[in-house]
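During the first year of the project, the team set up a workflow for recording each protein of interest as an amino acid sequence followed immediately by a discrete structure-token representation. This format lets reviewers and collaborators read both layers of information side by side without switching files. As required by the reporting guidelines, we include two representative entries from the current panel. The first entry is reproduced here exactly as it appears in our internal archive.
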Amino acid sequence: MFTNRRDVQIQWGDCDPANIVYYPRYFAMFDDSTSILFETAGCSKQEIIHHYGLVGIPMVDTRAKFYISSTHGDWITIESRVESFKRSSFEVSHKVFKGEALAIEAFETRVLVGRHPDDPSKLKSAPVPEDIVVKFMRG
């Protein structure tokens, strides 16, 4: 599967009073990394939403394992990839490296969501289009 790597410098606002990255800030970085992953694969999240008439691609599950902390000024590398596609959802993994060391492993599940055809005030999952899957199958 297609993988994207990006370097991120930890900013002052990412840190708590102990100068360690406050964990919710990592989840914002992971959300950005998923968006960048899709853009790099050739299908931005906004394009997918507009082209397929979706409402969004919400996260329905997330978790992380923290091994090494980071502080203001540190550089980290976030490696992101779609691990699998299901009917209307997909699994993304993020590995954060501090130098060569694995600092964090994070996982998220996202679902494609559109309006319910019988009641537009409700939401309904939408199938993942095959052309999106194909874009991620390249190495």
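The second entry, processed by the same pipeline in the following quarter, appears below.
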Amino acid sequence: MPQHNRPLTHDERKAAEAAFKGAPFDPKWSDAARKVYLGLSSAMANKRNEAFQEVLPSKTTIDAKRNVTESKLRSRIKSTLW
């Protein structure tokens, strides 16, 4: 896919700004502006999903922590009973 190095038109700039802000697309903008808006919106959505996947712990991690905590608790209970 060839890359064209040219300045954005006025409506392409407006579409890019709207995409970054999460604002709706204006149907008065050109097809080129629509492509800019959709491309940036899609890329930003993918980045947000990647960021959430990095931040949210996996089920395996949560289960492992729970098992360690339960094991420590059982050990404490046993030591207080003896």
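For the second entry, the following points were noted during internal review. Residues 5 and 30 are 18 Å apart (CA to CA). Residues 10-81 form one domain. Both points are flagged for discussion at the upcoming steering committee meeting.
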